[in-house]
Protein: Polyprenyl synthetase
Amino acid sequence: MSLPETVSAFEPEVQELSRSYTDAVAAKLEDFLSDKNDEVSSITTSATEIVNAIRDLTRGGKRLRPLFAYWGFLGAGGARDSAEVIQLGAALELFQAAALIHDDIIDNSDTRRGRPSVHKHFEAQHKSLGLSGSAANYGMASAILTGDLCLSLSEELFAAIPSVDAATRTIFNRMRTQVMAGQYLDVLEESAGPAYDPAEAVKRARTIVRYKSAKYSTENPILLGGALARANVELLDSYSAFALPLGEAFQLRDDVLGVFGDPEITGKPAGDDLREGKRTELIAHALLLTSPEEQDFIQNRLGALDLSDAEVQKLSTILQGSGALQETERSISELTVQSLQALGEIQTHDLALAGMKFLSDAVTKRSS
Structure:
């Protein structure tokens, strides 16, 4: 089943509604974090910097997770100006921010969206204030606490949505567990990867993609929006069939950009994923497609602390020349087609379908 031809006619309205909604989510975050800043100030003004760090981080980004929740909500009959779905979007943004803060610590990543990552921000603060002890340790400790607070604030906002029922709560709880488990699998893979069977590397990489990223980037947000509007099981199942492969395509595109993206657009240094030692599907394909000598080079140098610029370039060349990049692009295309086919099966009104198609394009046709 294909999308109705009338869907394209809704594109201007979809863009306007999406813009209005993300503006409302941003305003909600500003108000909420302003209140939290006052709350922390009543304890000590010295601690307001952790709220400010959250505020700075949540002012950026594409708001994709809230938008998936919004169009899932509208597709299930929710009101387009609902305060509850705005609050859900803000809660999802805080959850995303918490994940990013902790992920940057785990990956030892210096930048996020073209700016210093949160732990590097606090490391710079330590140096500028002339504090004693290790600036790096101070930065990491402060960022861990900031991420923990961000996760707590996400829960606080979500729990305060009046109409959250048991089904919606279950999706939110499950989302958090899946992300933590997926993140751990990613850490485990980076440490144990060289000892694992390369023949299973693609399967392991896809499992990490699904649970660390895809489910909380696309599937769970659209399910949360649908459940908040009391969608039936059939509609929620059709949402999953659309959103999960789309989320996997989204993360695979992110992996490609992590190696081959333009730093001016991605906000990350070229080859950053290679320096961080991420065992993505790109790497998994390369381990199956390269010569023994190239496999040894990947296993021994990927993520090495002293990895040189020349070695980053060599790894990039291997990924491209071996066909690993081509295989990953093929997976992205297959997942995108699967998602679009599932979108055509969703039983909802044309405006919501147009909104979901808009999100599909935003996820798959991107350079950052």
Notes: The radius of gyration is 21 Å.
